[in-house]
Amino acid sequence: xxxxxxxxxxxxxxxxxxxxxxxxxxxxxxxxxxxxxxxxxxxxxxxxxxxxxxxxxxxxxxxxxxxxxxxxxxxxxxxxxxxxxxxxxxxxxxxxxxxxxxxxxxxxxxxxxxxxxxxxxxxxxxxxxxxxxxxxxxxxxxxxxxxxxxxxxxxxxxxxxxxxxxxxxxxxxxxxxxxxxxxxxxxxxxxxxxxxxxxxxxxxxxxxxxxxxxxxxxxxxxxxxxxxxxxxxxxxxxxxxxxxxxxxxxxxxxxxxxxxxxxxxxxxxxxxxxxxxxxxxxxxxxxxxxxxxxxxxxxxxxxxxxxxxxxxxxxxxxxxxxxxxxxxxxxxxxxxxxxxxxxxxxxxxxxxxxxxxxxxxxxxxxxxxxxxxxxxxxxxxxxxxxxxxxxxxxxxxxxxxxxxxxxxxxxxxxxxxxxxxxxxxxxxxxxxxxxxxxxxxxxxxxxxxxxxxxxxxxxxxxxxxxx
Length: 467
What we know:
Blueprint: H1 11-27, E1 32-35, H2 37-43, E2 51-55, H3 59-66, E3 71-72, E4 80-84, E5 91-96, E6 98-101, E7 111-114, H4 117-122, E8 131-134, E9 139-142, H5 146-152, E10 154-155, H6 161-167, H7 170-182, E11 185-186, H8 188-197, H9 206-217, H10 222-232, H11 235-238, H12 240-243, H13 260-270, H14 276-284, H15 289-292, E12 294-296, E13 299-301, H16 305-319, H17 324-335, H18 348-355, H19 360-372, H20 379-387, H21 392-395, H22 403-408, H23 417-429, H24 436-449
Parallel strand pairs: 2-5, 10-11
Antiparallel strand pairs: 1-2, 1-8, 3-4, 4-5, 6-7, 8-9, 12-13
């Protein structure tokens, strides 16, 4: 069966499809409502990103009603069937009303028992997620006080928060995410429970932790999320690299009172609609400073903190099992976050190589936020953005020679091969050579006289190494 996952759902079609799913279930004699996050979002005046339906129909009946070609049963053991709509309509998860049987591993129930709407609502995590909605009448069905908590802007567990968090430890991170994302207060009883149980988050898989952190970091409430993680004790468990930043002095010109933690939060907050990779790189851009910190002539220094930080970032990406592309992007941004601090004095060939990198736009965004949180001087960023407006033929002209040209010139691929290509490219960009003939003559000269040492290290940071 083909899924429509690759089609970006149209909100109107998505809503219409979710309404039809409820209608079809009711026509077959079953109770059915929208449930959970889509109801919460609708009450808040937001457009739901997806729709869930809760019903008295059991999984076999749901599959029979909508047909095997339009359904799949990955979650059938927990009473969940996914119904796929037409292109643009997305898909709807249809779950049988249930109560969960004992959570032994702190992650998922051992089994489920099918039940009725009230019991189904009471098994859910937070009151704001425990609502049902009748799309035919517009009625909100509330067994848990969710509407009052939405009006009061508070995230409150259903029942005893310790019991809810013991059932699924990930709910502690979800409590933080919902409070930060919606700019709600976190109920004091829930916050106390998280503080007391924070160490138990260790049983949750890295992938589930990473998913929650991804949603927090791309949210406009990302700074509040990080503050709540610290306040709740979860930060030391899921982000020990960040917890180590507290108390590290910075002496930034604009914010001399800020420590490294304050500076990092300011940088994170200055980003505008960042990708997950950019937000994570901003969070970790100075993660190497606690290890690099030293004192020289009475001043703190942080030499090589960007290199140490890139290693820390790579390990975190591996721990969270992020994709290779994400890991490479995050570590590149952390490794180069100071690279443009002397852009106006940098050789054009060296600067051009950085500005043609796939991550250049995000590097500029990171450098701008870091500069605004330090000195306020973004002249280097503006200079680079001006260069990016150059005609392509000037900014990134086709290479005069390729690897195939070097092979035809009699060279064999080896350690010097890429280095030769880079040196020839630099000469081309700096207009010291203008033709393939010039390029091959330079290759012969370099082989005869010897290749110069590499020049890959970023410039010494004019702000942090002596601050």
